[in-house]
Structure formats: C-alpha cells, structure tokens
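note to self: the first set is below, dont mix up w the second
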Amino acid sequence: MDHNRTPIVLVNVYYAESGYGERLLTPPLGIAYLSEYLTARKVDHHIMDMGLGCTNDQIISRVKEFNSSAIGFSINSLCMDKTIDLIKSTKEAVPSLQVIAGGPHVSTLQEALLRECPCIDYGIVGEGEVSLFELLRGDPPENIPGLIYRGERGIIRVNQKRITENIDALPFPKFEKFELDSYEDKSIPLLTSRGCPYKCIFCQQSSLLSKNWRGKSAAYIVEEIEYWIGRGYRTFQILDDNFAYDAKRLKAIRKLFLKHAIPALTINIVGGVRVSGMTREKLALLKSIGVEYISFGVESFSDEVLGFIKKGTTTGRIEAVVRLATEMGFKVRLFFIIGFPHETPQSLEDMFAFIQRHPVYQARFFNLVPYQGTALMDWIDAHGRMLYPYREYMNNFKTYQDIPLFEAEHTMSVQERAKALERARQVAEDAHTRFLLSEQAGAAGCKE
C-alpha cells in the first residue's frame, strides 16, 4: 500500500449505546499505541476519537481535507452494525480510500468480517503496531503477520498473528495526536502488560492476544511515569488485568521509585487484579508505590461456579484477600457477573452477604454476556440455547444489560436472573453508601 498521500486517518470507534457512558473519560490506549509507533517512524497521521463526540460526517470531512489514501478503524463488537454503516459511508464518499480495520471484533471474526463487509480492504488480527506500519510502508501482504487481505481471485487470506514478545520495544503513548485536554478525567491511562495465562471460560482476553503474560520491565514503566510527571500529572489509571502478576517486577518498581525519588502519586488499578495470585506482600508493594484504588474480578461467591468458570480460586480465598485489602486501607472495587450456570438463589444471597461484611468502595454487577470464541459460548451451544441472536444483543448492548440472554442446564430461570440483577443494583448502591458514610464519619473523628 502506498501511503505517500498522507496523513493517514485513524478512527477510534465509540458509541454511547455501548453502555459505557456518553463520552470516553480518558484517551483510548489501543489506537494510541498505533499512533505512537507511526510517529516514531515518521508516518504522518491524524486521530479522530468518536469517544469525544466525533461524528461520521466529521470523519469523512477530515479524510477529504487531508486527501488521505487510507483510513484505519479500531473497532470492537459492540454496535457493530453502526460501525459497518460508518465504514460503508466513508468508502462511498471516498471510493479510492483504502480501509484498514483492527481491534477485538476483527480478531474475533477474521475473514468473516471481510466477507460481510467488502468495503474493508485489510484487517489486522491481534497486536497491530508493527503490522500496520508494514502495510503502510508497502510490504507485500503475504509477508505481514496478522494481516487479513484478499489475494488472487479475491480469496481472503489470514496470516498468523504477530505476538510482540518484548513490549519494551514499543514506544509508550504520549498522545501527541490526541486532544488530551478534552478528556474529562485528568489522569493518564497505562498498560503495563499484555496477554493472559488464565483460562476463564467467559473471557476473550487470552484468545485475542495470547496466553503468555508479557510485562513491561520495571525500568520502562518508571520511565513512562516519569515522563508524565514531567508534564504535570500525578494520577494514573492502570488498565491491564494482571499488573500484580509478577512480584519481582513490583519489587523492582518500588526500588526504582525510591532511587528516582518519585513524588507521591495516586495510582488506581481499574482493570482488575486476580484474587488467586494476591498476597500480603504484593498488597504492601502496591500500597508503597501509591496504589489507592484496587479492583478485583471476583465474578461469583460460589465455589461450584468458580470451579465451573475456571477462576482458579475459592470463596475462602476471596474473603481473605478482600478483608486484607480493606484492612490495609485500599479503596476496593469488586466485579461480579450474574447468570452463570450452577449459580443458585442461595449462592447469590451468600454473595450479597459477603459484600455487606466488608467495607468495599464499590461493587459492580454485570449481566453474563456470552461472547463468540469463548468456552462459555461453546458450553451453551451444547447444553442450552441463546434467546437472542448474537448480533442483536451486541448491537444493542445497553438495552440488554439487564436482560438474561440464554437458557441452559443447571442455570436459574430467566425470571430469577432478572430479579437477581435488579436486587444486585440495590446491593451495590447500599454498599457504596455505607462506604461514603464510614469515610465521612472517619474524617469527622479525625477533626475532633
């Protein structure tokens, strides 16, 4: 592909109907890594983030304004029909435009997406920084790892995806092409690792990226944080699910914080920390580097369910870790999913009682959504049935966030799960209210 008619336009696709808010609070990291890699190689480009309210017409206008030869869309499976319409309208407005698609939806559907949407010229599976650059540079498609393309006679080819083993080799995002001041949250998002070695049956993470955990080195993480400190930032959001996976790395980060005299920071782990690998030592290390807010992906408080979903932990372990984290002064957020097979009304009551026993900052409950390519979807196909077409609920995610999506063996009825979701919302509200009241009482006591 010839990208001499630069700049390339890269679009982060986002819709409020996804259920994640009207606008993005922080810049999207996936497309930011693509942007930084292109910047390092002097490929001129522009970023358009629909999470800031950018519209279809504005995207088309920008492409025409810069006489771009190519456009890239970073997309997920939510509201996919709207994304297909966006791609079609962009291609119709500028027929010569080469359309490149990447993101979770492309990695899941692969060649099926190009069959469905002929307007997409290329797709990139998995990690796309290097592959996108090689495509724009004009490398032969058959030589680019992770590329989906149309070969001879229009036959769609899928090259084996690229796994970047040394992610220190990728420059960290500096958001130079982003409207950084337009995001409401004035913190910096960080991604310190890729891949997941675990086998939770409901999750796409390991299949989309890799089953091998690959972490940035402690030195590289500290370099990234120091860069943003130099620009006046003191609050960071860690988005990866396995930040605390490696205790040796945490110790090295702590050592470098001391060596470099890193000032006091506020670090929030929003992506979640795995309960099964958490220890007092790791919690102490997290506290020492400024972690204030920590999230745990608990999912269920039933040993039978935890075994079924291959979570690798127990209710006893969950209770101990949550108790320890709250006692050490962390703001603790817990993630739960309602609707798993083997969940019962009693196990749900046990879960609600568990939340009430601990001063957690927040409990968040999600309706169980079966995703394509997961072991959970395979199990439902064998032991039950979906009540709605996949495309229907993925295109209307916000509408279906409290509607059970399937029925199956060993699973509570649709009515029971719907009532449980309703009850869970109240439990979550009560838990947060208790935390705030306790915090206020503590502050008043300190003043006395």
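second set (the one i keep forgetting abt)
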Amino acid sequence: MSARSALLVVVLGAAAALVPAPAQASWPGLNGWLSFSSNRFGTALSGDVFAMPSFGLPQVQLTEVRADDGQSAWSPDGRRIAFKSRRNGNNELYVMNADGSDETRLTNSFRVSEGQPFWSPDGRRLLYRKTPDNPIVQDADIWQIDVDPANPNPRPVLERAGDERYPSYSPDGSKIVFRGDHDLVDHSGDEELYVMDADGTNIVQLTSNDVFDSAPAFSPDGTQLAFESARDSGDALALDLYVMNADGSDVRRLTADPAHDEGPIWSPDGTKIAFTSERGGSSDIWVMNADGSGPRRLTDDPSRDESPDWQAIPFATAGHVACGDAGLARGAATSVVAAGTPCRAALRLAERWAARATDGTRPARLHGSDCTATPHTFDSVLVDCVHPLEPDEAGADDTARDVAFVWRDPAVALPGA
C-alpha cells in the first residue's frame, strides 16, 4: 500500500481497505508489456487492471467489473495475470489470461482480505497476504494457494505476530522476501525487510532503522533487491526508491525527487525499473534505468495509476548480456540480449531484422545467423538469431553467437489502439 493510501485508512474507515498496493515480480526473460491498476474509469476507491507496452501506448483495460481490481502479477510464462478483486465484498484472489479473458476465482473467504499475489517460479502456486478484513488494524500473515480452482488448498507459509506484507519469491524459488511490522501501526518506523527460506523458516532481517522500509523486489538474477523507504526524506508521503544486495548490504539511493515514489519492479532483462510516482502532479507509472538514471513517464492521467508489474517473455538469458532497446515504437526491436556478440553489433542486427520484418518479410537468415520468430502475447514476437559455429571453430574456445529480442509486430490489431 502506498504511504498516502495508508493514511487514508484512518480518514475513510472501512472503504480504505479497497485501496490497491504494489505487486512485485521480476521473472528472468525479455521485456514484455506492463500491467498496472487505475481508477480512471471507476471511482476514487474502485479501479481496474490495465496493460501497456513499455513505451506506454496503447493502455488496454483488462478488467471491467464495478469493484476494486488491482495488485496484478504476471505469471513466469507471461501468459496469465493474478490479481485481487473486491467484487464479492472482500478482497479475494483471481487469475485471468493476459488479454483479460477467462477470469477465475481462487479464494472464497468471508471477513478476510487476501491480496498482493505473487507466482511461484513453476507457475503452480501463489504467495499472498492474508489479513482480517479490518481497515483500522492490519494483522496479516503470508499464505500460499495452488492455482487450481478445483482444489486450491490455501495454507500458511508464515504465521507470526505482526503485519507481513509484499511476499515474493527469489527467481530460483528458494527464498521469500517480505516486509514485517511488529506493532501493527503503519509508518511507525518498525517496518523492516526480511528474507526467509521458501518454507517459512530461517528468517533473516535485512534492514534495521527507525524509518519506513517496504515493497522489496528481487532483481531477475536474484542478486539485488529494490525497495521503497523514507530513510532520507523522513516523510512517509515522500518515499524514495533504493537498491541493495540481496543480503542487505550496499544500499544505494535511486530516486531523490521531492515527490512520492513507490513500488519498484525490475524489468525481466534487469536493465530498467518501473515504479509509481507523483512527481508529475498525479499518481502515474514511470520507468527508469536500473541505476536510477533516465526517468520516463509512461502514463499521464489525472486518475490514480499505480502498482506496475512487468511481463516476462521467457528466454534463457544465462550467458547473455542485456543490450537495451533498438527502439520502443511498434515495429521496433526491444529488450535485446546477446551472447558472443558485442552489444553494438547485436543492436544493429536486431534493428535490421525488425526493419525488414516491418516491411513484410521476416528474415529466416540474417548476417549469417538463423533466425526464428515466435509470437507470444499482444503484439510481442520473440526473435532468436543464432550464428552457428563454423566447422573449424568447433574445437576452439568460441561460443555460438546468439542475439535475441522482442519485436513488436505492427500488423497485430490491439484493443484500445
């Protein structure tokens, strides 16, 4: 929950339980679309789930029920979205396809709030936050549920005194990071970040101070955590974003804008971080480089846009270097990664492949590389160009050269475009 939303609890009473909160997911792969929550077509306390490409347009509405839908989380394969909805009177968990179809309810509870879902690496379970549906006192534990509507089997992972929030797996599934709060008073200064084994044992405290730390998110390689904090601003309504090593060491500040920034989420290729910010005068979705440079606004709406999550296009990125984007518009090559090839050459190859494909011919071979193109979701096409070893290279130390990227097919009709 945002700092501003947390303070609304006292003012708005029971209705404040409807306010969304950020979700964190960073599955390794190439960069697909982003999902986010917005109340632009709802009420002050009722929103829907939207999706958009990484340059911000179009912005497609995925849910349309007149209730509060939010906290979207992409599955590791990038084909499903988990989210929480209040359409049945209290927050419960749902899953749907990437295009918003086939909405399926997972939980069926009473006087309980269930939200902040996060997928397991195998896509079979969700971690989530479970608390009594009480807008004044939040006293949550961490639970998990199977993504099987016929037999969901909800069960606790961590039950202890205090309020646990924002649970998420490490990319390999061995750890769970979360925020803990012992005194049940939000923004009291005892909100710290913790990590534990996936079975709820061996809890280790990562931060220790008297200010608000929250919303931890693993990087796709599992070595770093991004999070929000008031450690420099001293103001719960003006949080900044930080990154640290996964063991809690080497904390670095990423944002220092006077406005409020919250809810960081890594891009699947690890080069960028999306977040919610009020620096433009309203709550909108922004993206920046992973070192905090180059902030760029993605949504610009007077409503409340928040809680971004980044879709992964699955690709085995081990041994590859992330080279960035050759472009962002439709028809461009985005999220380029390379192995055995300098980034400059990889970006040039991706740009030329995309230009030819946009003109109507998808090259099966380019610059000596064999290229495959596999449609994923929306207008995203996974392109993989492999330059095989020549016979005289087979016994040498050379590795096969590989360039992969996401091409945004301009021929695909998109809703809301």
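remember for set 2: The longest strand covers residues 30-43.
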